Amino acid sequence: MVTAAETYPASLLVADGKIVEIGAVASPAGAQEIDAAGCYLIPGGIDVHTHLDTPDFNARTADDYATGTVAAACGGTTTIIDFSRQERGRSLGEAIDTWHEKARGKSAIDYGFHIIVIDMYEGIEHDLRRLPELGVTSFKLFMAYRGLSMVDDRALLTALDAARECDALVMVHAENGDAADYLQKRLLSEGKRAPKYHAQSRPPRVEAEATARAIALAELVGAPLYVVHLTCREALDELRRARLRNADVLAETCTQYLYLTAADLDRPGFEGAKYVFTPPARSVEDQEALWAALNRGELVTVSSDHAPWNYGGEKQLGRDNFTLIPNGAPGIEERMTMVHGGVSAGRFDLNRFVDITATGPAKIFGLYPQKGCLAVGADADIVVWDPQASGVITQERLHHAVDYTLYEGCEFRGAPRHVFLRGKQIVQNGRYIGEAGYGRYVKRRGPRAQRRLMAALGPGRS
Ligand code: MN
Ligand code: MN
Asked: Which of 77, 205, 321, 455 is most deeply packed, by most CB within 10 A?
């Protein structure tokens, strides 16, 4: 058994979808037994940053709830929090309804929703404050993508203030959208059109400036803040400065920033387009800083930012102009194994691995202790993790619907053998055996309510 705090030998008993006993469990008559000798039992992974079935570029992200959640399950993830997105001129409630329709009857794993706020219509504060009743306790805003989803500081303040009032968490994509837009146009005017210029158009300062600004705005209204996909030392420095002031700010990174660099954008031909996601991958030194920050708890989780576009499809839109390459890459299935690479490399221990991939996200996004932990009373979302499983990541082995993986040819050690969701086995020896529609919507509590609950649980509950 591996929790965020301890590793110890034990058995556990599951009944009616819940963990009912942990320790030297005697197997009741008729119970199905799973021998996990040589493996670890860990809580099912929670990926808090995915974009399934999301329209853009006259298409949709390559994975819908059917394929995306099977890929997640095979990678050891039993819960996602997906981004439902408001459309311009439409209400927030419509976005949530639309996402329920996308997921219903299709999802292989449990799921919750964040909302992406695009359009600050008259009266939106009222609608924002009602979202927690629907179990949606996180509002995402973009400081980048000028003319598309970017909001101004006033809109961000409005959302932060509403979140503070109704006990929700604002999430920001922190990049200075005006600066990125300016640099893109300047590069194009110089005839610089290849994928590699994606990184030059959004250097670390673009991210660090917006990170600092978002934190300052959150402090002004006394609201908590969550920075998505933090990628570099300069943004980490802003996070640390804010923490010294006691600012209520948390940040994640994503798998790709731990393994890739801006040099991947300069692969031969148009291959670099596969590595166009935003913010761009940085340097080896930045990777080292992110791993260290994960070990120290300065970064609280690694999400996938799974936003898959086919290389043979939508990615080709930017063949002659890097600014037209759809931003995003797959990673929902690879995430757990790649983060476990940090254990193999001695960057952090197994308990930290569990905290980063499951317990931390459950606590931050209002699912703990129902999810994210192995404890009596918790949902029996359990992964039998084989630390010795090894091989090479290849597109053929993966279950996503997109036509490539960022990690083609990467050696891995450590992979899920069996996966259980609320007691039902959905992956057996790496093979998906679940059923579409078994996944359920999970309502989430807000950050204040979650903190109150954890205080009531007391120490010793990890
Ligand atoms: Mn983003
Ligand atoms: Mn994203």
From this structure: 77
